[in-house]
Structure prediction request, 237 residues.
Amino acid sequence: MHLAILGASRGVNYHTLLAALSDPAITRVSLLLRRADALDADGVVGPAVKSGRVRVVAGDATREEDVAALLEETPDVVVTSIGGVPRLTLRGIVLDQPSVCTRAAVALLRALARLGATPRLVAISSMGIGDNHGAMPLALRDKEGLEYLVRRAARGLPTPDAVPPVVAEPAAVREDFLPEVVVVRPALLTDGSGGHAVKAAADAYTYYVSRADVGRFVATRCLQGEEWANKAPVVGY
Prediction:
């Protein structure tokens, strides 16, 4: 399997990458990183880069041409966890890049639409979006933009009726062309090594989960098989 990852330098997809490298069935991994050497010193990823198992493309996830370079070897699965860094302020939770998820989703989906093949897409969103909004009243608008665009592009997931304000041009993304999409909705993300069992369901009611355990969930349960294909599981403890 050839896996392409956006957002692997930190957070959930760093742990997705680590778990993927422990799976011999994943023979090739392509990464889009702002700095090509960002993971060279990593004790697990660095040797995989040197051996050629991991290919690194330097670029910006919001630039369609950079994303197209990541996809030029046509992966079987693409996982994206692009997002802003949240900070707690007196005004509540704010992001350092308030629309980066949505802009990156446009770039990725447009690049995917140019491929001759259609890889499975796994997108990391957030609990509290869409029909799960009651579980977390503070839904991030940028994640709503991501989900709207991904669902618009998916054949097997309904597109929400309302266009989120952060989505400037819905028609910029092709409709109904991706046959297999998984939208992963983690609970409040925490740091730590994880190692705990997670529960996952479309209507799961949960509060928190480690980035490490979400990454393992993605790598072991979302990359292939029908368990979560064209579904949006909430993941937590």
In short: The radius of gyration is 16 Å. Residues 174 and 209 are 33 Å apart (CA to CA).
